[in-house]
Amino acid sequence: MVRKVVALLFVLFVGVELCAQTPAPPPVKATPQNAAAFLGDWDLNGVGPQGPVSFTLSLKRQDNSLTTVFTYQDRPQTVSDVSMVGQSLSLTVTFTSEQGSYPAVVTLTPSADKVELYINVSNGLAEVGGTAKKKSGGGHP
């Protein structure tokens, strides 16, 4: 009887662990079609290690592709990739400042009644969490 209980607990534990480790879907190139909910101008506000921080994002349709402008401290930053990962928009950005250049991944994820912002700088050197709000057109994706 004890062996059956232990075996059952093991199966349940392993099953829960496997479910919790479901991999994220692979990224796909963002297009005007699959990123339609994110088209427009956005204010991004978050909190990082140095306190509150703000960014802007402009994502526009240009024929069958997208143009992206991501700004920090009123300066455009280099965006090298825009993709969709499931329902999330993911930008590969290089932040440039007087201190140097830092690679980052900026992610916008629809969640209930808001759009969550998450920025991972230099593979965890710094992280920013917050929200994104569409400037015009209202609402979230």
How would you explain this protein's 3D organization?
- By secondary structure, this protein is mostly beta strands.
- The chain has a single domain (28-134), classed as Lipocalin (Beta Barrel), CATH 2.40.128.
- It is 13% helix and 57% strand.
- The chain is built from 1 helix and 9 strands; from the N terminus they run H-E-E-E-E-E-E-E-E-E.
- An 8-stranded antiparallel barrel has the order 2-3-4-5-6-7-8-9.
- The longest helix has 19 residues, at 2-20.
- The chain is globular, with a radius of gyration of 19 Å.
Layout of secondary structure:
Elements (H helix, E strand, L loop, with lengths): L1 H19 L7 E2 L10 E9 L2 E12 L2 E8 L2 E11 L2 E10 L2 E12 L2 E8 L4 E9 L7
Antiparallel strand pairs: 1-5, 2-3, 2-9, 3-4, 4-5, 5-6, 6-7, 7-8, 8-9
Features:
8-stranded antiparallel β-barrel; 141 residues; 9 strands; single chain; 1 helix; disordered N terminus; mainly beta; Lipocalin
